[in-house]
Structure formats: C-alpha cells, structure tokens
Specification:
Length: about 260
C-alpha cells in the first residue's frame, strides 16, 4: 500500500467519518491526513484529536501534500470546487459524490487519470459496513478493506443501485423502533424491550453474515405452519407490506437517476 497522505476536499460528515475510521484502524492509523480549511471547527477538531491530521491552508494545499485525494464536497458545488484545482498525474482520486458519474469527474481532474468511485457510509467511522468501489484496484481495495467490507462493482451503473439500497435506512430503524415500542406498550420495561429487540436483530443478521448468505432463502421459509411467525408473515404479506419495500426502492432509484440527469 503506497498511500502516505490522503487528502479530503470537503470536511463534512462523510469525510470526518472516514478520518475517524482511518485513525481508529490499527493498520491505517499512521496514515497522514490533510483536510480542507473550509469547515474550520470540524477540521481543527480532527487535527487536535488525531496525530498526523493537518488542516491545509487551501484546497490546493490539500492536493499538493497528498498522494490520494478524496472528493467529498456535496455534488452541486463539486465541479466548480474541483475545476479550480491543479491535479498532478501522480494523484489517485476517489470520488464519493453520490450523483456524479466518473465520466464527469474525469474531465475536472486532468492530468490525473487514476479515478475511482466509492460509496462509503458514515458507519465507516466504526470500520464496518459495505463500501462500494468502482472500478477495481488492489491498492485502494486493500486500504479500504481495513475500514469495512469493500464490494467491487463490475459496472458503474451498479453503484447507483447500491446507492438506492441505502435508502431503506430510516424505514429499517423504524421497524426496530416499532417492535421495541410494541414490547413496551404490552408490559416490557422500556430499556429491556429495546435491549432485547436490538440483540434479536443483531443475532438474525449474524446468521446470514459473511459467507453464510446462502442460508437466507431457507431462513425465510423456516417456520411452523400456523405458528406465530407464520401468522405475522401472512398478515404483513396480505397487506402488501413486503411489496412496499420494492416499491420504495423503485421510487428511490427513480429519484437517484433524475438527480444524475440534472446533476451532470
Ligand atoms: N453523508 C452520507 O451518508 C454520504 C454517503 C455516501 C456519499 N456521500 C457523498 O459524500 C459527499 C459529502 O457528503 P457529506 O454528507 O459529508 O456532506 P457535508 O457534511 O455537507 O460536507 C460537505 C463539506 O464540503 C464543504 N465545502 C463546501 N464547499 C467547499 C469548498 N469550496 N472547499 C472545501 N470544502 C467545501 C462543506 O463546508 P460547509 O459546511 O462550510 O459548507 C462541508 O464541510 C457528497 O458528495 C455526498 O453525495 C455522503
């Protein structure tokens, strides 16, 4: 792994989550980090908390001191921010811009050509969760594999689909909250209902995590006819409860594609 300094153009929620992850990783913690000066409070908080995190005087200084550059501003300002900068052909550039395709970003960063698209999520700070990468690269994959589960996409359009999948976050947390609240309303103490429900969901996911994913179809079907699980499954299915999730994802990808059309 050849990255000595990784620089961030834009020090927002995602950039700081990535930096927390890097600095919390035994393998990556010595990596030097350069951040933009723009979000001054967040930048100086990162610099005072961690060794080898420097607040640059300008976005250009971030580039001039970094081998890898992460573009982490919001998409509407990205082109004007990035086009102002002078890249070198040695730079490796990682775009986390949710609604900008590589073809657009490539034209802003010449003469740099090593360009990757990545979708980390804020829980990268805890060094967990999926990190979409396109295209494949051994060095980038190796670095980020210390920060989560890197999944390399074969085509850029697949990155859009993973973006859409992240739109189930609030709905999923709402399911957990609804279940825990039901427990409370029916007599479980508040803390215990939540504690039990979260532990139960965690255990269910652990049954299909990693190389156990082929268990999922069996686990979906494994229930006693007329039993409690069967009653819940049939009631939710009869109200279209599961189909609604696919409908929600259809609506999310439609918005994502509309943002691309308006965003390039
Ligand atoms: N957050 C997520 O869950 C998530 C997930 C996947 C991908 N992404 C992508 O990650 C990128 C960053 O998202 P975010 O949630 O971190 O947004 P954010 O919190 O709004 O961060 C963007 C940062 O860019 C800064 N900025 C604006 N103009 C700048 C300039 N000229 N020079 C340097 N910095 C500038 C902003 O500073 P000010 O606050 O001063 O304006 C802010 O600190 C976006 O492109 C988004 O699509 C985010």
């Amino acid at each position: 792994m050849n990255v000595k300094t990784i620089g961030f153009i834009g020090t927002g929620v995602l950039a700081s989550s990535m930096i927390h992850g890097i600095k919390g990783s035994p393998e990556l913690s010595r990596t030097r980090v350069a951040v933009s000066p723009r979000n001054a409070d967040r930048a100086s908080e990162l610099a005072s908390r961690y060794e080898n995190v420097a607040v640059a005087r300008s976005n250009q200084e971030v580039l001039d001191t970094s081998d890898w550059v992460v573009i982490s501003v919001i998409p509407p300002v990205a082109e004007s921010v990035v086009r102002e900068l002078r890249f070198s052909s040695d730079h490796t550039v990682i775009s986390v811009l949710a609604t900008k395709r590589l073809s657009a970003v490539r034209s802003w960063i010449s003469p740099a050509v090593r360009l990757f698209r990545m979708v980390p999520m804020p829980f990268i700070s805890l060094r967990t969760g999926p990190i979409t990468l396109y295209p494949s690269d051994d060095g980038v994959k190796e670095f980020f594999s210390h920060l989560g589960h890197v999944i390399v996409m074969d085509e850029e359009c697949q990155v859009e689909l993973t973006n859409a999948i992240t739109s189930v976050t609030n709905a999923t947390y709402t399911i957990i909250k609804t279940v825990a609240e039901w427990g409370e309303e029916n007599g479980l103490p508040q803390g215990k209902s939540l504690d039990y429900t979260i532990s139960y969901f965690e255990a269910m996911l652990s049954q299909i995590s990693g190389n156990l994913s082929d268990r999922l179809p069996r686990l979906v079907e494994e229930r006693t006819s007329g039993g409690m699980n069967d009653i819940v499954m049939k009631l939710i299915a009869s109200h279209g409860g599961f189909d609604l999730w696919a409908d929600g994802l259809d609506a999310a990808i439609k918005k994502c594609r509309a943002d691309y059309c308006g965003g390039e």
